[in-house]
């Protein structure tokens, strides 16, 4: 009898080792992905080893994130876990809350204070190197802050505003801070954020555009100046994929098309491609329909307009700006758009060579604090 029990446990141990080994083997053979289309974010790559990173614990945390991001059939496991959690009555999965009225809300994670200081120093360094360039910063609060009343009972969305205020107070007064929270909060009964995606809607971007106009000194358009066209009602965004919550309704995407005709050219500088439209309508048939705006993110795009205004604007941004930029074309003759996640050039050199008058840094709060690429603006993280 004792021998049978030992044989049983030995067989279980062998099967467990074989199962674990098979998973490791498949993971090793699975190609490393750079970008998750379903989550619309860059995936953690294999971190570079150094003694300082090991001692600080940074290497261990980056390696853990690498294993999580590159795990085989990641989307499948996320969905299975969310279904189990939902069956148990849980309202949170993979950092995303299942909120009221079908909203998926991404929890804000407190950033490392040293990392925040590095980002502030990078912006300060750029400002000191470019004193004649008028600068504006817009850190857009995400839905978890503006729509906090949609959170499940007893859930905390974090403290985005606290950390945004730290950045605002640390920047010199000559950098204008564009606080769009009051305007968004005043319109929170409107569809200003997608329910299944981390972005604001075109409506939300329009509200922020009007706030920017007041600070930059141009007269913003009214909604009546646009034809608002729904181009899809079947958009399932990044939070739908990240959370695994599948029992929610899809979103609609709207385009604000100016009633007064305008001509422009959009040049993808890196790929040497150009278009006369800011919209990639074919992308509405793809998973990430938000890429209808500018065909997604690129290192550098240049928008040349027919505007009689001779102002030139440099925008350093994340994907929140993609639905925001079309509103700016009547007010600037040239808009250069840099996404530092994909751009390795010298931003100050670009601003100088293109004779830029103004610069807008536009990020959503979560991306600003989580993504290190903003440090490039000050010459770091090259």
What does this structure look like?
This is Membrane protein. Keywords: Membrane, Transmembrane, Transmembrane helix. It holds the Pfam family DHHW. It comes from Brevibacillus reuszeri. This protein has 382 residues and is α/β, with parallel strands linked by helices. The chain folds into 2 domains: 1-28; 96-378, no CATH class. It contains 12 helices and 15 strands. An 8-stranded mixed β-sheet has the order 7-6-15-13-14-12-10-11. Strands 3-4-5 form a 3-stranded antiparallel β-sheet. A hairpin with a 4-residue loop joins strand 10 (264-268) and strand 11. The chain starts with a helix and ends in a 12-residue tail after the last helix. The model has no long low-confidence stretch (mean pLDDT 89).
Q: Using the alpha-carbon principal axes, give the shape.
A: globular
Q: What sequence of helices (H) and strands (E) makes up the elements?
A: HEEHHHEEEHEHHEHHEHEEEEEEHEH
Largest sheet: 8 strands, mixed
Structural class: alpha/beta
Number of domains: 2
Distance between the termini: 66 Å
Q: Roughly how much helix do the residues carry, as a percent range?
A: 25-40%
Low-confidence stretches: none
Give the spatial strand order of the biggest sheet.
Answer: 7-6-15-13-14-12-10-11
Number of helices: 12
Q: Which whole number gives the mean pLDDT?
A: 89
Radius of gyration: 23 Å
Write a concise keyword list for the protein shown above.
eight-stranded mixed beta sheet, 382 residues, 35% helix, 12 helices, globular, three-stranded antiparallel beta sheet, alpha/beta
């Amino acid at each position: 009898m004792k021998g049978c029990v030992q044989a049983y446990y030995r067989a279980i141990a062998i099967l467990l080792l074989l199962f674990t080994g098979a998973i490791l083997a498949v993971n090793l053979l699975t190609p490393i992905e750079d970008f998750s289309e379903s989550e619309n974010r860059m995936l953690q790559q294999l971190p570079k080893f150094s003694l300082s990173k090991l001692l600080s614990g940074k290497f261990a945390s980056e390696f853990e994130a690498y294993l999580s991001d590159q795990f085989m059939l990641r989307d499948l496991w996320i969905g299975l876990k969310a279904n189990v959690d939902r069956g148990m009555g849980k309202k949170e999965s993979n950092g995303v809350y299942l909120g009221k009225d079908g909203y998926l809300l991404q929890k804000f994670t407190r950033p490392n204070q040293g990392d925040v200081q590095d980002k502030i120093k990078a912006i300060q360094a750029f400002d000191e190197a470019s004193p004649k360039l008028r600068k504006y910063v817009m850190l857009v609060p995400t839905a978890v802050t503006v729509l906090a009343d949609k959170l499940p009972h007893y859930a905390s969305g974090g403290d985005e505003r606290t950390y945004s205020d730290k950045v605002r107070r640390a920047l010199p007064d000559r950098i204008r801070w564009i606080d769009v929270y009051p305007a968004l909060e005043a319109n929170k009964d409107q569809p200003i954020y997608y329910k299944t995606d981390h972005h604001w809607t075109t409506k939300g971007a329009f509200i922020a555009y009007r706030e920017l106009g007041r600070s930059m000194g141009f007269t913003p358009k009214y909604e009546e100046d646009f034809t608002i066209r729904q181009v899809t009602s079947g958009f399932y965004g990044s939070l739908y994929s990240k959370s695994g919550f599948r029992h929610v309704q899809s979103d609609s995407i709207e385009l604000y098309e100016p009633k007064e005709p305008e001509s422009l050219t959009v040049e993808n500088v890196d790929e040497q491609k150009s278009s006369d439209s800011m919209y990639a309508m074919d992308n509405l048939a793809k998973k990430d329909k938000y890429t209808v705006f500018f065909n997604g993110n690129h290192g550098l795009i240049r928008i040349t307009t027919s505007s009689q205004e001779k102002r030139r604007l440099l925008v350093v941004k994340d994907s929140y700006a993609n639905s925001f930029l079309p509103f700016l074309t009547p007010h600037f003759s040239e808009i250069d758009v840099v996404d530092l996640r994909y751009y390795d050039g010298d931003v100050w050199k670009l601003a100088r060579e293109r004779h830029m008058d103004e610069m807008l840094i536009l990020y959503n709060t979560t991306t600003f604090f989580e993504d290190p690429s903003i440090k490039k603006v000050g010459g770091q993280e090259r």
